[in-house]
């Protein structure tokens, strides 16, 4: 597999996430469908992965008191399977450790479950259906802080 090495990871604005969220997570739907709850909360963190000036991957961290929810993880279709998702997850986990929070959770689309399992995330409970993305599992990971 060709791995991307010249990736820059940095915090981005909510509206920046749409160029990746829209084609990957809300394909064919109005752009307004890319707006998530808590997107603009003061402690919400959006991370972007850039190749040159092009944003190719995004994720969003929603910190709670004792845990952080990961949402909106997406890599542009043509850039998938090149290690970008992996680098985004790693950066997110490091930032969560710096917040001194040890529990990370997310609702994983069924197709993405093996991706998260690869990085130590574990399925919790039964599969459930969400309006966007169909079948999901809740997944968690304990980080060493
Ligand atoms: C899931 C997603 C974010 C992964 O990002 P990515 O950049 O393609 O992943 P990476 O290239 O970093 O993959 C890392 C490893 O996981 C593997 N992997 C990636 N996607 C996988 C999948 N769906 N199933 C199984 N393994 C997968 C890769 O092959 C790679 O393994 P390797 O290191 O042995 O080669 C991306 O494919 C995506 O945007 N998918 C569509 C949207 C989506 O489902 N988002 C998640 C919502 S919960």
End-to-end distance, in Å? 32 Å
**Beta fraction of the residues?**
35-45%
Average pLDDT value? 96
What name goes with the CATH superfamily? Gcn5-related N-acetyltransferase (GNAT)
Low-confidence stretches: none
Please identify, by name, the CATH architecture: 3-Layer(aba) Sandwich
Query: H/E order of the elements?
Result: EHEEEHEHEE
**What portion of residues is helical?**
10-25%
Radius of gyration: 14 Å
Major sheet characteristics: 7 strands, mixed
CATH topology title: Aminopeptidase
- Helix tally equals 3
Q: What small molecules are bound in this structure?
A: coenzyme A
Tell me the structural class. alpha+beta
The count of domains is 1
Shape: globular
* Highest-level CATH class: Alpha Beta
The beta-strand count equals 7
Spatial strand arrangement across the major sheet: 1-2-3-4-5-7-6
